[in-house]
Design goal:
The protein is mainly alpha-helical and about 250 residues long. A 3-stranded antiparallel β-sheet has the order 2-1-3. Among the domains are: about 5-55, no CATH class; about 130-245, no CATH class. Residues about 185-195 have low confidence and may be disordered. Helix 5 packs antiparallel against helix 6, helix 6 (about 150-165) packs antiparallel against helix 7 (about 170-180) and helix 9 runs antiparallel to helix 10 (about 230-245). Helix content is about 65%, strand content about 5%. It is built from 10 helices and 3 strands, in the order E-E-H-E-H-H-H-H-H-H-H-H-H. Keywords: TPR repeat. InterPro entries: TPR_rpt. This is Tetratricopeptide repeat protein.
Length: about 250
Amino acid sequence: MFFCQNLEHEGSSIVGFCLSADCQEPKSQFCVNCLINPQKHLNCRIDCKPFDKIDLILDLIIYKLDQFQEKADQNFEQFKCEYQNTIKIIQKEQQKFKEIAKNFKEQKFKEFLDNIDRVKNWNTKIKQTQFEKEIIDLWLKQGIELINQQEYQRALEKFEKVLKEDSKNYLAKFYQSIIKQKQGVTLMQQNKNYLSFQLLEDLQIEYPNFQEQALITLKEKLRIKSNNIATLMLQSIIKYNQKSIL
């Protein structure tokens, strides 16, 4: 049994609790004498609830929470259904454009023309966004990932696609030159590679912050981990170049 915390009501059993968030009384509890005193719970008398009312309020809270959960479940099912329908539409469109791209690469222009309205529609969307920049970043990342898989020829194709759209892309220039010189992984094991160092110097002249920006681009923009071949290539050349300067 709980007793009132007010000294003048010592020994009086509490008959309820005040549920006001602003209640200033000790432990927000009250006895019969507290309710008689007009100075007690002065601004929160309406929230002074006896035990039976609190029991009712707790049941109501549980009921409301059950309703919230039911509503959340309904929203989730609706979202899940919409998500699944959206994915189906996207996958269907992806498959269609893979087919269009295949026909175009094989110069099946009649099949391409059959779908040119679809291409035009997407071209309008692309012009309104940064898709071109995003696809360049994608090619760049794919090229670096191919280096890490030691698939240098396929990586070279990606970098050349980047440079075709962005001729001043310094990372694509760097890796394109490395691959063309057929240095690959052995670059990290060699102490002399003057063409590569000359390339680095040229890049530093054209892009003064090349070293720092290249590593930041790999790590932050392209989300490339630091313990991979492509990053080690860059770091090894930078490290050796710094030694040669000293």
